[in-house]
């Protein structure tokens, strides 16, 4: 029995209960009548920008592989062969905010799971080889066709080959072979072995969802504990003369262990704070809204204007907390009664001012919104 295939995106309850992090799903016409807003040349143009992460992979399973990191120049991209190449551009949703709306289609998954929208273009036969990802991914075919081979065997003992420029799988034996057309989408749980091969010139959008890293959570917790730790020198009484000047005696070692153990004791509130800070911190290397010039804003926002969310902006709300919210790694005050306004702002990539009904929130709501606009977390657009 092959991969489940449906037409159109299933409802959220069915998808989460039956497929999310469990098994793959082929969704025909997931984006019905999809009209790709970027041409292959425009994607290539993004790879010329030094502020945008990009990679170029040349080769095939038979001929071997090479990997180059961007930024690239026009001569390199214009001289690509007709086949066996793939150009990948990361975080396109952060650099082209008008494309961030595609993530609204996945609003049934929390924002703190969102990694990025990666776009790849490839010549005929272009591939990155058989591999597995550490994140869940939706593979939307934007232009042309791409063939996907996957291995659903849960007992397959596949090893990463670290000898080449790519971490590819040795012994990959596909159980399923699927050809995707524009608008089709394939969902793959994290860790599932797969291999995509371009069938002619094509463009593929990868919407990735990644879980938090334990080391990042610990790093945030340690920062909080260090700030709260008293600025004092640990003292103890030596048990006797040192047996050797380079030796840490057992009594002192035990005393220092106990001091660290006491310092590492924490509370659920501090753990929640560390989690919220880590999950709301944007990836390093992305444009910082704080570095942008403060925009000129009208005294009154036009009702027909649109507010566009800065895709770098990460907002996180903790359960039961209505007096503050986390924004890009730091706790921000939330005026009384303004939680519904913040929820509405964060619910989609853009919203019309008239839909916010600002009058119900008074001056507090207006101050919250104008503060977010001045700090470039949202942008005010003309109709």
């Amino acid at each position: 029995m092959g991969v489940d295939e449906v037409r159109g995106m299933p409802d959220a309850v069915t998808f989460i209960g039956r497929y999310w992090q469990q098994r793959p799903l082929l969704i025909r016409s997931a984006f019905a009548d999809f009209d790709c807003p970027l041409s292959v040349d425009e994607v290539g143009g993004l790879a010329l920008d030094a502020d945008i992460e990009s990679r170029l992979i040349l080769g095939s399973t038979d001929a071997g592989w090479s990997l180059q990191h961007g930024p690239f120049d026009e001569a390199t991209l214009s001289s690509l062969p007709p086949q066996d190449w793939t150009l990948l551009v990361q975080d396109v949703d952060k650099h082209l905010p008008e494309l961030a709306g595609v993530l609204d289609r996945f609003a049934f998954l929390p924002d703190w799971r969102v990694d990025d929208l990666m776009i790849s273009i490839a010549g005929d036969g272009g591939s990155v080889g058989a591999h597995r990802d550490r994140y869940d991914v939706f593979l939307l075919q934007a232009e042309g066709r791409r063939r996907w081979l996957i291995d659903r065997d849960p007992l397959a003992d596949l090893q990463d080959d670290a000898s080449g420029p790519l971490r590819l799988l040795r012994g990959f034996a596909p159980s399923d072979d699927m050809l995707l057309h524009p608008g089709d989408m394939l969902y793959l749980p994290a860790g599932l072995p797969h291999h995509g091969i371009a069938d002619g010139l094509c463009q593929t959008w990868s919407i990735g969802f990644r879980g938090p890293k334990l080391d990042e959570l610990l790093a945030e917790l340690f920062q909080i504990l260090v700030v709260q730790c008293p600025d004092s020198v640990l003292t103890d009484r030596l048990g006797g003369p040192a047996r050797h000047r380079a030796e840490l005696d057992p009594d002192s070692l035990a005393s220092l262990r106990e001091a660290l153990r006491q310092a590492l004791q924490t509370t659920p509130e501090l753990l929640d704070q560390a989690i919220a800070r880590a999950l709301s911190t944007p990836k390093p290397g992305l444009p910082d809204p704080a570095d942008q010039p403060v925009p000129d804003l009208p005294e009154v926002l036009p009702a027909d204007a649109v507010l566009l969310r800065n895709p770098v902006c990460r907002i996180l709300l903790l359960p039961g907390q209505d007096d503050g919210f986390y924004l890009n790694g730091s706790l921000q005050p939330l005026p009384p009664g303004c939680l519904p306004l913040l929820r509405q702002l964060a619910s989609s990539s853009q919203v019309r001012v008239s839909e916010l009904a600002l009058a119900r929130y008074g001056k507090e709501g207006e101050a919250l919104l104008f503060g977010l606009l001045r700090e470039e977390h949202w942008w005010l657009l003309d109709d």
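Residues 289-381 form a domain with the Malonyl-Coenzyme A Acyl Carrier Protein; domain 2 fold (CATH 3.40.366.30). The chain is about 25% helix and 25% strand.
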